[in-house]
Structures are given as C-alpha cells and as structure tokens.
Amino acid sequence: MFRPRPDGPAATIAVEVEGRTVRVPAGASAAAAVLLAGLPSIRETPVTGSGRAPYCMMGICFDCLAEINGVPNRQSCMIAARPGMRIRRQYGAREIAPNDASDHLPFFPLPEPRSGGA
Amino acid sequence: MRRFDAIVIGGGLVGSAIAYGLARAGLDCALVDEGDVAYRASRGNFGLVWVQSKGLGAPHYQRWSRLSSEEWPGLAAELGERTGIDVGHERKGGVQLCLSEAEFDNRRAMMQQMQAEAGNFGFEYRMLDRRELADILSGLGPTVVGGSWTPYDGHAGSLALLHALHKGFLGKRGTYLPMRTVADASVAPGDFRLGFGAEEIAAPKIVLAAGLGNAKLAPLFGLSAPVRPQRGQILVTERASRIWPIPLGSLRQTQEGTIMLGSSEEDVGFDTGQKPEIMRNIARRAVLSFPWIAELQIVRAWAALRVMPADGLPIYDESEQFPGAFTANCHSGVTLAGAHANAFAPMIAAGALDPMLTPFSAERFDVPAAA
Fold first, then answer.
1. How much is the ipTM here?
2. Fewer CB within 10 A of the terminal residue: chain B, N end or C end?
C-alpha cells in the first residue's frame, strides 16, 4: 500500500521487520519501515486482540506499538530506524517480569507518605 | 417553562449518580451540566472505591463509605445490564503499602482506632507483613515493610462509570441539559426555577452537585458548601499484563492494563498545572514499592482538582429556609457512587434526608471558634 517517493532520499538503512529486511532512508522512523514491509498489522490490542498498524505517525494513537530490539511496547513512529534494528510484533500488553528488574533498584530518599484516597 | 420533578445541577460523578438514581425511581429529572469548560474532577479521578482510610475520628463517614462499597457490585451489574458498559468494578479488598517501620506503626495505630470507633458496626482489617505481601504482589521492592488490608476496598474505571451513569440516566428518560451555567435562580420553598436565556426550567426539588461550583451556588438556596480545590497529580504507564490482584491505594492497574501512579495533595487554587517535583515524588514512591515499574514508560500524566470540604468529610444538607433544595459535596465521586445512586437519591425521591446523614450537615462548620 505504501511506496517510497521516487524523488526521496536513498534507502540506506537496513532494518528487520518480522524477519524480513527492509531499507529506509536515513532519518525515517521504525514505523515507516513497518509500513514499507507491507504487513497488515504490527500489534494486537490488549483488550480485544484486534490487529493495528501505524496510523497517526506523530506519537498520539499508540497503534504503532512494536517490540524493538527486544524492548516491548515501543512507539515505532517516534523512534528513528537504525542499521540492524529488529522490529517485531507486539502481542497484547507487555509482559512484566518482576524478577528480571529486581537489580534496578534506584536509591531515593523517602518522599512524604500519602494516604490513599479516591 | 418546562417543569420537572427534580433538577440536579452538575453532571459529574456525584450529580450523574444522583440523577440516575432519581430517574430510576421514576422522577422526571433534569440534569444541568456546565460542559467541557467545567473543572470536572470526575475526568481526573484515580478510580478507587476506597474505604480503609475513610473516617478516622468520624465513624459516620466510614459507615457511609462502607455502605457505598456494599452497593457498588449491584450498581455496576445494573449499569452493565442497562447500558452495555462494563465499568470494570472489582471488590476484592485493597492494600495500602507502608515503606518504613514508622509508616507501618502509624498505619496500624490508625487501623486500630478505626476499629475501636466502629464499635458494633465492626471494621475488619489486617496488617500484612512483608512476607505475606510478597506472596500476593510480584516483584515487591525491598523497601516495603508491610501494609494494611481491608476487604471493603476495590476499584473501577471512573470514565466508564461517568459514561454509564449518563447513559443509564438517558435510558430512564432523564433530560440532559449541557452547556448551561447556573448564575442565578428563582428560589422559594418547593419551587425552584432556573433560566438559561429564553429557556426556563422549574422543579419542586433541586440537588446542588456542582462540585467546586457549589461554594457559590449553595448560598442562593439558603445552603452552605465550604469546598475548596485540592490538586492531585497522576502518572499513567504503558499497558502491561495483569500483575496485581487488588488495588494498592496510590497504585492501581486498570482493567486495560495501564498502571496508575498517585497520589498528591496540593493547595494551589484553581491551577490545574503539573509540577515536576510532585511527579518525581509519585514516581519515586512507586519505584520504591515495585522496582520494575521503572522499566515501564509513562504515557500520560495529568492534574485535577479534588472538591475538598473544609474538614475533608462530605457535606449533605437540605435547606431549612427553602425545603426541597439539597446539596451533595465530596471528593470521592467514585467511592461514593454506590451510596449516591442507591441511598442518597432514594432519600431525595422520598423527600427528606435520612438521619444517618445528619452529621454531614454543613452546620458542623458553624461552631464559634474558641477565643
């Protein structure tokens, strides 16, 4: 459905979208690579599982979410394509793996306690 | 002039819950709403149905919050059936986390006092230590000492609730009148008239549920509603798989998977802006509680103004000067939705507030200050 403009800059950056290699010009977003790859969708929504593809291309709609270089739920329209970038399908909500994150404890002073309230 | 059985001023969570309850009881009801220019605390709500911290030193408030929590499952099911909107309500209890021994000791003392004040009405709670919490909450941070648990707490989607109440109200032939600001009124006992340009509406009963607007509106009806804005800020993460079985006071995961981080309290008038240092404190406390939260992206953040009565407790009144005029003010539009739809509205329909609401009268503010 999408084709690069014939008068556009040369496609010099090779990225991998769901296992297939796609070339985009320098400065193009990862979402542009997803569109060029011609996939019908790049994520499935967490609530109903329906397919979504990049739409707004400006960071608002969250329909371009993808796993990029192993990190889930990235907004691919807001991330520049880099050589060798791996863009994969985002299935539903991101999985949380608490134990993997346990060594990331930052050291902070305690803020004022707050009571819960609606 | 168009006549109704009742007029409710304010289309937020408080007003729409009351209007829904009145329409359901068979009253021909008008719901007057300011529109999107309103401050509308309902739009910024955190979505807790929270009971465990309500009413220290004021057991009538604990009792009213509990009543609401008990009405919630029925209200949520009824709204689901009538409107097709799932408000995402769960009532499996809730935990308030304590991040130091001092916090834990304070919390325990508070829970003990709540139980003592509840008397025969009862107040079930448990202080959970770190080990017990770690069993139910994955990835608990090493800073967490323990927490307080009660079975009464829960949560729901506040925007879905607002939508469902409006839809339920319309489904019961309620008349929604948006984009109308009440500046003046013609007021007589049992005869209340509002004008909007050439349009005039009238009813023998009127309920003021205009949030922060009630402060100026109430005196027109011989009522008093000393409420002030209290700003709260919220951060929201990307959607993640379900991780907690229950809400955690200032942390909750929505039905859709986002994690909401709160809470804060600031007195800054009608300023709905955000402050980085407050947002940082909210994030810090969340990450101390669950270090893996630091891995999640924040996708939204906002501030909203709570409708805060002078002493933090709700205000409910009927005007002595102009019987038929009622007022409802509180900062817990989600928590108290069950009480407002299923207890307060039936009282209005019947024509008088139940004595259980007497301690909530604004008369409590009339005590002369000691010299």
1. 0.74
2. C
